[in-house]
């Protein structure tokens, strides 16, 4: 009965918390920041982006009140119920942030970039730090800001992006990615002396390896406005992060690498970073949904050379 109620109400039991070892928060913080590297941040000439009050109000009204509050402890319910009163205020604030780059070295306030990570056990007993899943909490109002920026990015994307990337495209879903994979495979198998090989790739800590400077260079080549590239570069650098386990909190680490998994923009940014990861040979297809990747090799007459070359290139 309770399973039925939870399914109808979309209510899920809280995941088990991890042990409150005093040294564990700092150990996990260092582990999650292991890809950190110092990057020289250089901003281009700024072209100011402007958000409208109608868009800000709509975004505030769509906040999920059940989502946990971020490090600022401002609940989503308050922001949603006061959307009408707050829309004008936050429109001014957001637009000020977007226009400050010429005057200040940062345009995203530190308090909005702060992340608190709550580690949740993947399995028990624990054998290594990787057995903890990082659940990142960021300010809900910052998630709203990200959604507004994401809308601007998607509006500017060229239609010539990889057609085999099924994330963040209108009227596309995981079902379309699966259907395409099956269609390519079954159509090929109708021919004589053929078979199909597939490699399913799970990128380890994919978002954590993003170097912001490289990302914004690619975004610029895709035609994204300079103001957006500058905003993204600042958003992804100088991010304070700490781990909280029960009543224990680690020391703060400032990150200049990665797109945090708790952020709205991270999957889209990873998708754009890897948009040029396409198949070299016509007999191969690289099908993607954000960071979930499948290499499909359509083999004929027992010749796997093209497929093996593709796999070696991806795993090098």
Automatic annotation (TrEMBL):
Residues 101-316 form the Reverse transcriptase domain. CDD domains: RT_nLTR_like. This is Reverse transcriptase domain-containing protein. It comes from Hemibagrus guttatus.
